[in-house]
Amino acid sequence: MPASRRDLLRSQFELTWSLFEYHLERLEPADLLWEPAPHCWTMRPAADGGWVPDWADVEPDPVPVPVPTIGWITWHIGWWWTVAADHAWGRRPRERTEIGWPGDRDRTVAWLGDLRAAWLAVFDQLGDADLDATASFPWRDDPAYTVAHMIAWVNAELMKNVAEIGQLRLLRHARAVHPDPPGGSRGSSVEELEADHAGHHQQQAE
After folding, report:
1. pLDDT, tens digit (0-9, with 9 covering 90-100), for 187-199
2. Is omega for the bond preceding 45 within 30 degrees of 0, making it cis?
3. How far apart are CA 120 and CA 113, in angstroms?
4. d(Cα 153, Cα 28) in Å, to the nearest integer?
5. Residues 121, 115: Cα–Cα separation, whole Å
6. How far apart are CA 187 and CA 140, in angstroms?
7. Model confidence over 103-127: pLDDT tens digits?
8. Secondary structure (H, E, C), the chain
9. Residue 181 pLDDT > 60, yes or no?
10. Which of 159, 160, 154 is nearest to 138 (CA)?
11. Which of 20, 61, 137, 159 is disulfide-compatible with 87, CB 3.0–4.6 A?
């Protein structure tokens, strides 16, 4: 029997989640707020004991775009995923400032697991007519985009964020083992790299 649209979308989601679990199971507390570059966005302690994400209320995004920490990415997942579920259930979508971040490794992993369970509950109540309805998020009631498009968008957004978290985790641990890469190129400016490249070609020409 051919797979239904809902089953296909769920299968894609579960594949993405399995990749996420690989990294979540190996996530260390120090991974969350490790800053991969001086120009980054992270989570910062708030006066009330919670956490506040770095953010810029400007359009377009800052240039260059700040590199987010794993902690910031997990908060961002919690934000857009919570809002997506709110729209799917017909609830009032929560504002960005209403989405708190747990702040430590174990509670963050548990929070993400709760978001997954809530999202699967959305899957369970969707029929073909629901999938064909106009989506209200992340597009504003554009009839060209259906709830099926929203579900596919969640899958794609989660996959992107999982890849970012995985790369940051691997990079941190690789740098811990090998702090200085071969050739000593880390930290070189674009101009320095271009100069090295030009010098290499000059030597070949000679």
Report:
1. 433 344 344 444 4
2. no
3. 11
4. 29
5. 10
6. 43
7. 999 999 999 999 999 999 998 899 9
8. CCCCHHHHHHHHHHHHHHHHHHHHHHCCHHHCCCCCCCCEECEEECCCCCEEECCCCCCCCCCCCCEECHHHHHHHHHHHHHHHHHHHHCCCCCCHHHCCCCCCHHHHHHHHHHHHHHHHHHHHCCCHHHHHCECCCCCCCCCCCEHHHHHHHHHHHHHHHHHHHHHHHHHHHHHHHCCCCHHHCCCCCHHHHHHHHHHHHHHHHC
9. no
10. 154
11. 137
Band of pLDDT at residue 174, cut at 50, 70 and 90: very high
For tokens 């964020």, the residue is: 161
Which phi and psi angles does 34 have, rounded to 5°?
-65, 130
Name which of 117-126, 131-140, 170-179 the model is least confident about.
170-179
Task: Categorize the per-residue pLDDT at 177 as very low, low, confident or very high, splitting at 50, 70 and 90.
Answer: confident
Average pLDDT value for residue range 64-87: 96
Rounded CA separation 200/183 (Å): 14
Report the distance separating Cα 206 and Cα 203, nearest Å.
Answer: 5
What is the pLDDT averaged over residues 14-25?
97
Q: What are phi and psi of 89, to 5 degrees?
A: -90, 0
* Residue 169, CA distances (Å) to 111, 115, 206 in order: 19, 21, 43
- Long-range CB contacts (within 8 A, 24+) of 136-141: 136/87, 137/83, 137/84, 137/87, 137/93, 138/80, 138/84
Residue labelled with tokens 């000059």: 202
